[in-house]
Amino acid sequence: MAAISQITRRRLEIQGFVGVEERTLAETAPWLRLAFALCTVLAAAGTVLASPMLLWTLVPVAALAAAFPVHPFDLLYNYGLRYLTGTGPLPKRGAPSRFACGVGAVWLIAMGWAFQSGAIVTGYVLGGMLTFVGLLVSTIDICIPSLIYRTMFGFPPKTGSDKA
Residue 90 falls within a domain, yes or no? Predict the structure, then answer.
């Protein structure tokens, strides 16, 4: 059985993956990053290209991810990749993760507006910030919007050996 570090588990609990079995989380944790990685790559491309159209295209994806417990890009894994990897389906995303996607949708709207209205520097600054935040969650599971959500609405109790 694969193991998951207490640090990774805690970071995923902060994102809303609370009460997920250890085995399930260990098996799917790397794949939980896929949706955020795809969004980050597309948002970074939209930033580099200063393309409002690419950013506008990503807004409904982020909005759907905010509205439902399954990110649209999770479907790529759940209905395709997992059969190639021999792993189980992804657990549903909790409120902190969906909040993060809502923040992302608003951020993408601001970026698209900035590039479309000629505020290119603002678009690049917003895009750089979003890319940085996206890189954190898609590489080391640190989700700043989820941390903001948890600061406002409470953190889950610590589990296992990470109890202080």
Answer: yes
